[in-house]
Design brief:
By secondary structure, the chain is mainly β. The protein has 2 helices and 28 strands. The protein is globular and about 55 Å long.
Length: about 425
């Protein structure tokens, strides 16, 4: 799977509008959030901070240095949080036969702890094949109703980017007890499990090729699997799970003229298909199987979910009891049109969403008002890090600060990059 690409879609210039806010004075991250955590926050690993002052300005940023290990390469959006407010990070490697590490960061003390490598934990579980690697933790790190954190690891050795060959060493679904630090191996899959999403009792994972959806029941330990479908080497980098346990995965096909088409398929908790909604803005201006599909994710306090596509269109998913969810295109996340927007943060959980977007080879901080469907772009300080690549995240700490992962360029390759983002 290719690390990253950013194809520009058609540029759409939005007309100037007045920004109408429900509250006139708002700011994210100005102080500690309420000690109370809602059910939606608990189930999605989100945090909605009280907003005061003016959020429409450039944020303050800080570079965090995770513990180093040989061949540490990048943080592919593999972030999450536990109920105590600790931030969990998956740091990926690169060399075949290598291993990703799972780490924990304490925002209160700025202390790190390395919870070990995937290969070490496979050996402990008696599931390690000689020579096997697990170079990536690419998925989000998502909470289950049992208080544990769930994530996937994967390898890329031997895979074919046209979708004709699976990764040699496949993938694994894991959970960790955030208190004891104990890992538990749950299942092995031949596909590359690139994404994970939680729905309380049910944990979902998305594998390539052909968009294979796995569902793990945290109560019964039952595993289920269904093939959703994706042509060639297409891989959506993310999927969505709603608080009711439903999963949403793109299905990508070619019509009779060879044109790529995408639809968002809704599955219920039994992995029964409920609906398929066409996604007009799934691909960039020149549709390609190499596009990244769903990239950014965020949960809202009312149970709705938001996501961005490779082209930079913002969508919402509204669950409806007794009916298929309503999927709505909200417009371009970036005020000037198409961009690559792999991170989303629901600032107050209701009206304001922010995130990183790349456009014209520049990273910017975008604030989007859901009420007026308008946004503004602000400078984003990467502290002169050489050749940064910023990937996806949804994770915030109890003070409302956001965490964005990626890599920095070095003379011999890349090293992990983690940026803490706060708005004052």
């Amino acid at each position: 799977m290719r690390a990253w690409c950013c194809r520009e879609g058609r540029e759409v210039i939005l007309g100037r509008r007045r920004f109408v806010l429900a509250a006139a004075a708002l700011v994210a991250g100005a102080g500690p959030a309420s000690a109370q955590i809602t059910e939606v926050e608990k189930r999605t690993g989100s945090r909605f901070a009280p907003l005061q002052g003016d959020p429409w300005r450039a944020p303050r940023t800080r570079i965090l240095d995770a513990p180093d290990f040989a061949d540490a390469n990048s943080i592919w959006g593999a972030t999450g949080r536990d109920a105590s407010g600790h931030i969990w990070i998956g740091v990926s490697a690169k060399v075949p036969g290598g291993s990703a590490h799972l780490m924990r960061f304490d925002p209160a003390s700025s202390e790190w702890r390395d919870h070990g490598s995937v290969v070490e934990r496979l050996a402990e579980a008696g599931a390690l094949h000689p020579g096997a690697g697990q170079v990536k933790i690419h998925s989000k790190i998502v909470p289950g109703d049992d208080g544990r954190l769930y994530f996937t690891s994967m390898d890329e050795e031997g895979e074919a980017e046209d979708g004709s060959a699976l990764p040699k060493w496949g993938s694994h679904l894991w959970r960790i007890d955030p208190v004891s630090g104990r890992w538990e191996h749950l299942l092995a899959a031949p596909e590359g499990l690139v994404a994970a999403a939680g729905g309380g009792r049910w944990i979902h994972a998305l594998g390539y090729w052909d968009h294979v959806l796995y569902r793990f029941d945290t109560v019964t330990q039952e595993q289920r699997r269904v093939v959703v479908g994706a042509v060639g080497g297409h891989v959506s980098r993310n999927m969505i799970a709603s608080p009711d346990g439903h999963a949403f995965v793109p299905r990508v096909t070619r019509d009779g003229y060879g044109t790529l088409r995408a639809a968002l398929v809704e599955f219920d908790a039994d992995l029964q298909e409920r609906a398929a909604t066409p996604l007009e803005f799934y691909f960039g201006e020149a549709p390609s199987a190499e596009d990244h599909g769903i990239v950014g994710l965020a949960a809202l306090a009312d149970g709705r979910s938001l996501f961005t596509t490779h082209a930079g269109q913002l969508y919402s998913i509204e669950p409806r009891e007794g009916a298929a969810a309503r999927i709505t295109a909200l417009g371009w996340f970036h005020p000037r049109g198409a961009s690559y927007a792999p991170s989303l943060f629901a600032l107050d959980g209701r009206t304001l969403v922010a995130g990183i977007a790349r456009r014209d080879d520049r990273y910017e901080w975008i604030v989007f008002d859901l009420a007026s469907r308008t946004s503004r772009a602000f400078p984003f300080d990467t502290h002169d890090v050489p050749g940064p690549l910023l990937y996806g995240s949804i994770t915030r700490d109890d003070a409302g600060r956001c965490y964005v992962g990626g890599w920095r360029s070095t003379p011999d390759g890349h090293r992990p990059l983690l940026i803490q983002v706060g708005v004052e």
